[in-house]
Hints:
Shape: elongated
Helix content: 10-25%
Distance between the termini: 93 Å
Low-confidence stretches: 192-196
Radius of gyration: 33 Å
Number of domains: 2
Amino acid sequence: xxxxxxxxxxxSVDDEEEAGxxxxxxxxxxxxxxxxxxxxxxxxxxxxxxSQSYTPKPIEEDDDETYAPPREPHKPKxxxxxxxxxxxxxxxxxxxxxxxxxxxxxxxxxxxxxxIRNIEIKRRxxxxxxxxxxxxxxxxEFGYGDISLTxxxxxxxxxxxxxxxxxxxxxxxxxxxxDNIDIDSxxxxxxxxxxx
Length: 196
């Protein structure tokens, strides 16, 4: 009997303030039926018992702190199919990347940064010294010969000047288009005067 009375009694705000911090009400956990949830549970909208329809509260921008306006699609900065003077400014090594169509195997990837008209464009090249590899094509273009026999770490190309052809990627889902560098089009050039 006592337990049932304790469950039914809910102190008011005035009772809690009057009793101070020492005032505690011990209640057993209470499970609600689906009808009680619809009728008693707090929610942000309004619920009508007669029509059994729920009207959601309109969302305001200030309510959600994580709201971010949609980003504009990325647009290419260079002209598609045009050749530009470029300089390789740095290379990053990304280790243990999955091999295309062989996810169980891994390989190292070199990411070259080409500077074209103060725009940095990155180009990934696998760190493979095979005869048909893109790294071998680059090394031969810059006068390093057959690297399949001698080996090549790829860092020797940093600081080299060249001419490259730009091609645009296919649009992504949000309409972004990116500039890319055609490795087969890279031509080594002499650095402009004053640059080494």
